[in-house]
Design brief:
102 residues, 13% strand
Length: 102
């Protein structure tokens, strides 16, 4: 913020929090979390201090997913599901045939 004489004045500091047990955070959706008893007390510090992350103005976060790899994995999982479904259906039909013979 500019002061009356055109000088810059620091009016605040964004602080970040780490938790001893981050797995205990409760997800409330939209990438937001709540502190719980399981997380422990938050460790609040300035960015880049005590193991916290850093904040960069005007930067964009890249995706952490390789789209092509995940699409191949999805197709593989879908085919495995179809094969298992057919095997269960064939087994069901065989059991039905055996029951009808008795």
């Amino acid at each position: 913020m500019k002061g009356s004489e055109g000088t810059l004045n620091n009016v605040g500091q964004i602080m970040l929090a780490n938790f001893p047990n981050p797995a205990g955070l409760e997800s409330i959706g939209r990438n937001m979390y709540l502190e719980t008893i399981a997380t422990g007390a938050p460790i609040v510090s300035a960015p880049g201090q005590q193991g916290t992350g850093e904040i960069y103005q005007g930067s964009l976060e890249n995706s952490n997913v390789e789209t092509v790899t995940e699409l191949v994995n999805l197709i593989t999982a879908q085919r495995a599901y179809e094969i298992n479904s057919r095997a269960i259906k064939a087994s069901d039909e065989m059991l039905s045939t055996i029951n009808n013979l008795s």
